[in-house]
Design a protein that fits this description.
Layout lengths: L11 E7 L6 H9 L6 E6 L6 H11 L3 E5 L6 H14 L4 E4 L11 H7 L5 E5 L6 E3 L3 H18 L11 E4 H6 L11 H12 L4 E5 L1 E3 L10 H17 L7 H5 L11
Parallel strand pairs: 1-2, 1-4, 2-3, 5-8, 6-9
Antiparallel strand pairs: 4-7, 5-7
C-alpha cells in the first residue's frame, strides 16, 4: 500500500455541500485545517437562508485553503457534489473528497482516505464493514439505511457494502470518466449512481470502517421525497442495465492516466 508520503505534491480537495449549516461550518473547517495532512475545502452553498454562505465567504477570506461556490437556490446534494467535482477538475486537483458538514463524518478519518487512495479509484468510509457502525440511531433509521443499501446492492449487483455513504475520496481520472449527466437525481441516490458507474468502469473501490455520528446541531436533510427519489432512480438504473453500452472503451481511454487500475 502506498502511504500519504508517496503523494507529496498531490492536491486534495474536500467538496462540502451546505444548506443551513451555519452552526457547523466554521467548527468543521477549523478542525480540518488543524489536521497534519493538508486539504483544500470547497464549500458549495445553495443560498442558505441562515447565513452559511456568508460564513463561508469570511472563512475563505481568512484561509487560503477555503473556497466557496455559491448557487442560486436549493438544488440538491447530488448536483452540489457534481458542481464541486467539476470545479476541482478545472483547477487540477488530484484527489476529490466529499463529506457532510454536520460532523456525522468526522474529520479524524480524512488522512486515512489519502493513505488508501493510492491503491484504489474510490475509497468509501463505510458503516457496513467490520469495525464500522452508527451512533444514536433508532431501529427505524437503521432499518431504512440497511434496507436501502441491500436494495441498491441487489438491484445493481454492487459489491460495495456501504453504497449510500457520502464520506468518500475519488481519484481525479475516475471522476473524469464517470458519466455524471446520467445520474439524474438531486438527492442522496446520487451516491448509489456514483458507485455503480465506478464499478461498471472497472474501478477499484476500497472501504474502511467509520463510525457515523448523528449530526451535532441542525436538522437532517433526509426526507420521504428524497428516499423515494433514490428508490425510483435505482429501479430505473436497474431496468436500464442491460441496455447500457459496455464500458471497455471508456476504460481504454484512461491509458496513461491510471488505466492499469481498470481491469
Amino acid at each position: 500500500m502506498k502511504g500519504i508520503e508517496d503523494r507529496v505534491g498531490c492536491r486534495a480537495l474536500i467538496v462540502l455541500p451546505t444548506y443551513n449549516e451555519a452552526d457547523n461550518l466554521e467548527p468543521l473547517v477549523r478542525e480540518i485545517m488543524a489536521l497534519t495532512v493538508a486539504f483544500d475545502i470547497l464549500v458549495v452553498d445553495d443560498n442558505s437562508p441562515d447565513g452559511t454562505g456568508e460564513i463561508a465567504d469570511r472563512l475563505a477570506g481568512e484561509l487560503s485553503a477555503v473556497h466557496v461556490l455559491h448557487r442560486t437556490g436549493k438544488q440538491g446534494y447530488g448536483t452540489a457534489c457534481i458542481a464541486g467535482f467539476l470545479w476541482a477538475l478545472d483547477r487540477g486537483y488530484d484527489y476529490i473528497l466529499s463529506m457532510d458538514c454536520d460532523f456525522s463524518h468526522h474529520p479524524r478519518y480524512l488522512p486515512i482516505f489519502l493513505e488508501l487512495i493510492g491503491d484504489a479509484d474510490l475509497v468509501v468510509g463505510s458503516r457496513y464493514v467490520a469495525g464500522g457502525g452508527t451512533v444514536n440511531w433508532g431501529l427505524i433509521r437503521k432499518s431504512i439505511s440497511a434496507g436501502g443499501n441491500l436494495f441498491a446492492r441487489t438491484m445493481l449487483g454492487l459489491r460495495t457494502r456501504d453504497c449510500t455513504g457520502g464520506f468518500r475520496c475519488y481519484r481525479r481520472d475516475m471522476i473524469e470518466h464517470v458519466p455524471w449527466n446520467d445520474i439524474d437525481v438531486r438527492g442522496y441516490g446520487f451516491l448509489v449512481g456514483a458507485v455503480y458507474h465506478v464499478q461498471r468502469l472497472g474501478g477499484r473501490i476500497l472501504e474502511f470502517p467509520i463510525v457515523f455520528e448523528d449530526r451535532r446541531v441542525g436538522q437532517s436533510k433526509m426526507s420521504t421525497a428524497i428516499a423515494f427519489e433514490a428508490l425510483s432512480f435505482i429501479t430505473r438504473l436497474a431496468l436500464a442495465k442491460g441496455r447500457l453500452k459496455p464500458a471497455a472503451a471508456t476504460a481504454a481511454a484512461r491509458n496513461g492516466t491510471g488505466a492499469s487500475r481498470l481491469e
